[in-house]
TrEMBL record:
Cited InterPro entries: Dimeric_a/b-barrel (IPR011008), DUF1330 (IPR010753)
Domain DUF1330: 2-92
Pfam families, A to Z: DUF1330
Protein name: DUF1330 domain-containing protein
């Protein structure tokens, strides 16, 4: 069953976060992920205001988890530490 990787982000250092985004995109693609939304227009109805929203679809929940724990993603994530406030969740689709 496929899964969605959903991130809500407030960027505090655009240069460092740009390095993260570049490396994360490569890691996500390497694990079968594809972006459905990456930034773009949004409207917050409830919860914390975060100006960047990313949704990627993976072939399975495990593929998304494996991506997160991969060496490639963790190397990219090092750039996001201290450069953003993030919430990240993986949700299995009910197909």
């Amino acid at each position: 069953m496929s899964a969605l990787w959903i991130a809500h982000v407030h960027v505090t250092d655009a240069d460092a976060y740009g390095k993260y985004a570049k490396g994360a995109g490569v890691a996500i693609a390497a694990h079968g992920g594809k972006f459905l939304a990456r930034g773009g227009d949004y409207h917050t109805l409830e919860g914390a205001e975060r100006e960047r929203h990313v949704v990627a679809q993976f072939p399975s929940k495990q593929a998304a988890i494996d991506c997160y724990h991969s060496d490639e993603y963790q190397a990219a994530l090092a750039h996001a530490k201290g450069a953003a406030e993030r919430d990240l969740v993986i949700v299995e689709l009910t197909e």
